[in-house]
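Deadline looming. Please check this record:
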Amino acid sequence: MNTNTNRVLACIDGSSLTEAVCDYAAWIAQRVDAPLKLLHVIDHHPETAVTLDLSGNIGLGSQEHLLEELTAVEQQRSKLRLQQGKLLLQAAKDRVIQAGIANPDSNQRHGSLVESLIELEESIRVLVIGIRGKVHENRPDKIGAKLESIIRSLHKPILVVNDTFKAPQHIMIAYDGSKATEKAIDMVAISPLYKGLTCHLVNVSKDDAATEQLLEAAVSKLKNAGGIEVTTKKLQGKPDQALCEYQDKHDIDMIVMGAFSHTRLHDLLLGSFTAKMLMNAKKPLLLLR
């Protein structure tokens, strides 16, 4: 068993994807023989705030009394959030225990989810998180409000869950020869997570001798690792569309790819491949930076 500094960390918030996040985290923890930790962060989203600051509009005679009432209401709301989080963590613990995790850990924090994950980064082996939380859970055209910041801030593998759990049998590496995808090749080759699975190594580009050599080297590395069945495919067209179509056609259960390799300005001007894949892929994505 690995030490507690090498955990699978599952972020839960009670949204519709919480159970799937728990299930994928339990699957990973068992496959790589790592401890599992459940994290719930009470993050006060300004976009969901319903309490207005009316102190400036309160008359002199009633100001102090009404401010006391507003403070009491906010304290009660905080207590309810705390209790709700504890119940959520207990339900999640029960679920992963049922899935075979012997001693799951749990932690509840107040504050920023992004800052909490940055503080915990050194102890994370894989982060598992839903593609959208409660703020956007009924908006399939949106991704989580904090998700891009989390992906850009951390340098650990992040599994973004977007569907109910299915134990992966077929994975796809979206290969482009970048440092991130070379990192993905190394990770898949050495990690017990992928042993016994079929790996589709898929490249979307124009015919290029240099890319072809890199692709051949990647195939060789995966095959030499043993325990992984490798299928290679070269596609043309728009990368996000071609990969998502391939995913549907070949029943891919998980996509492994690099994430946000360009600057925010580049992505703002030209669009982000990672964001397009997050929006269009129908199965979980394991992202690397």
